[in-house]
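>> received
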Amino acid sequence: MHPLPTHALPRRLDDPFHPVLPARASGMLARDGGHSIHWEDAGDPGLMPVILCHGGPGGANAPARRRFYDPTKFRVVQFDQRGCGQSAPTGLLAGNSLQATITDMEAIREMLGIERWIVAGGSWGSVVAIAYAEAHPERCLGVNLTCTWLVRPQDVHWWFQGVRTMFPELWEAFAALVPAEERADLRRAYARRILENNDPAEADRFAHQLHVYENGFMAFDSPLAEAEPERGARYGRIFAHYAIHNFFVEGTQLLDEAPRIAHLPVEMVVGRYDCCCTPDNSYDLAARLPRANLVVVPGGGHSSMEPAMAQEVARAPGRLRDRILAAGEWK
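>> returned
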């Protein structure tokens, strides 16, 4: 007896997720500096296109993220950012920046022959989505953001220092690896030990610890398994590279350039208790965007996979699509 295909299985009445169908096409796109970008294209080419920007910096594309998008309504494009996931070479930092990622997205759009698309992302992915939309508003149908991060100085300070307010024991374990006199600036202390260390094993230890620290305040529920040291080291190295370069964003740049996307419909979801990308990030951006709809989830944290967040994150793409269609902005 053959098992039913995923899309044919019965669903719970409270299941917010859509079926994850296989990618229709995938490949590697050669780029400058020796980088090759892995991409996937899932769904009917005639459907409304959306490009999903993964988190990090240092994360990876996950087909499971397509579960928030109805495959009968959306064509979903995904890619691994430079040095991440299946993109090659793994972990390459040279030529690796937010601005390079934006040019990679444009190259993917042109390669696939897409004129305009929805740009979507959560956490670090929201930074990528906002920066792309502000650079290329003419290529955007709308913007879908989950757990927005603006990487302003206060947001970066919160990530490295302020988290102690909510997770003191986690922060103390993170800070304990560096001398007391350096703990007032853990961003630089960790970046120096990860990126300038002559001992690769020691650099990997700090990079992995950075990843462990981040995972500690990402979710309400305990993770199913501990982070793998090798994966954590790869993640932490790219994260440190971006962090020491202020994530390639100038101060309040994402807010300052928000008028460039003021005409676009924007859907935003954030958890009330998001301790990674605190709700003021979403609130402050929404205040600059006349067509933004912000949903603050009362029992939500940072993880969009947890029940409280999943329900709202899964509703947002459909709302955005309906708004785009109602305004006659899509064929």
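>> The beta strands are 25-30, 36-42, 48-53, 74-79, 117-123, 140-148, 266-271, 292-297.
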